[in-house]
Amino acid sequence: VWSNEEIGKNYNAIKQELLSSGVVSSVTKSNSPITDIYSNNFLDWRGKPADQKVIFWTVATEFDYTKTMGIKMVEGRDFSEDFKSDTAAVLINRAAMEIMGLPETVGTKVTFFGERSATIVGVTDNVLMGSPHGEIKPTLILFQPDWVSAISIRLEKTKDIQGSIKKIETIFKKLDPSHPFSYSFVDEQFGRKFTTITMINRIANLFAFLAIVITGLGLLGLAAFTAEQRTKEIGIRKILGATVPSLVKMIAKEFTWLIIIAFFIASPISWWGFQKFLEQYTYRIDFPWWMIALSGGLTLLFGLTIVSLQALKAARANPVNSLRSE
After folding, report:
1. SS3 for 130?
2. Residue 237: its pLDDT value, please?
3. I need a surface site. Which of 130, 131, 157, 268 has the fewest CB within 10 A?
4. CA distance 274 to 199
5. How far apart are CA 186 and CA 229, in angstroms?
6. Which residues in the chain belong to E strands, given as ranges?
7. Average pLDDT over every residue of 215-221
8. Which residues lie closer than 8 Å to 112 by C-beta, 6 or more apart?
9. Which long-range CB contacts under 8 A does 245-250 form with residues at least 24 apart?
10. Are 112 and 41 in contact (CB under 8 A)?
């Protein structure tokens, strides 16, 4: 939910009513949504090399940020109402801890925004907030409730999502009647980062389907043509005692070798293409080799099914009809 002046004035009342509604487990506010970063700054600390210049993502928030966002604490603690000193406290993420390289991170005093100083009270796990193509940057999370643009709400587990949204909307309209209630889900916001990839995926699936259909039709025609060309040979072999399975195997064998050769040509190209595609993402899955082998096996099965049906049709034909003109 995007914040405004009215929500800002009534935030504490809104938060308490949301938590008392039975459909919300946690609420927090911040200067940016979990799927984006609106601020950056440089951070100084004792022992920092003079020539080191590192830009830190900066998130301003209040209590319950990690709880609402589902972020794991690696060291120390989150901001808490039990500590009045948290107005001068900050959190950093694991990436920031690794860059700082301090023997003890929690308790270190840092300086940011020129002269503002604070103490690190906790270290969070890394969270991908920016582009999915880049690395997770070192992040500074500071306690500053008056710097806010987004209200984040974690719903209780329920099958009636729309019912929960209705209750939340009622609370916001009650305490902020002058603005329309609008919201978005984090998974939808994060999904928009992959709009281009999703479009490419759909186009690729369409062309893959067309390629399979065209290939199947071409293979069907080639198998039918081959069986027609060898009709008399099949008839003679059948009269001489050849069985239907042996005749099917004879025709299918030629196509089997073509499919195997095509597989060994296409496999390294496909592997290279997949690896190049995945390299654009810093955090990515591993592409297992057996997927290539599985696709090759399915291709062989698909091809042999089409060829075998045509070969079976030719092998079952009456040899008298095929040899009548001889």
Report:
1. coil
2. 76
3. 157
4. 17
5. 62
6. 24-30, 39-45, 55-61, 73-76, 89-93, 109-112, 116-124, 139-143, 150-155
7. 86
8. 41, 42, 43, 44, 56, 58, 90, 118, 140, 142
9. 247/311, 247/314, 247/315, 248/308, 248/311, 248/312, 248/315, 250/311
10. yes
- Whole-angstrom distance, CA of residue 155 vs CA of residue 300: 49
The token pair at 70 is: 């589902």
Determine the pLDDT at residue 71: 94
**pLDDT at position 319, please?**
63
The three-point CA angle 311-314-319 to 5° equals: 145
Average pLDDT over residues 3-7: 85
* Structural contact between residues 44 and 33, judged by C-beta atoms closer than 8 angstroms: no
Residue 196: partners with Cβ closer than 8 Å, 6 or more residues away: none
Q: Which helix (H) or strand (E) element contains residue 203?
A: helix 195-229
Tokens 């979990």, located at residue: 34
Tens of pLDDT, residue by residue over 66-118, are: 999 999 999 999 998 888 777 889 999 999 999 998 888 999 999 988 788 89
* Letter string b/e over residues 203-230, b meaning 16 or more CB atoms within 10 A of that residue's CB: eeeeeeeeeeeeeeeebeeebbebbeeb
221 alpha-carbon distance from chain centroid: 41
Q: How many CB atoms lie within 10 A of CB 260?
A: 14
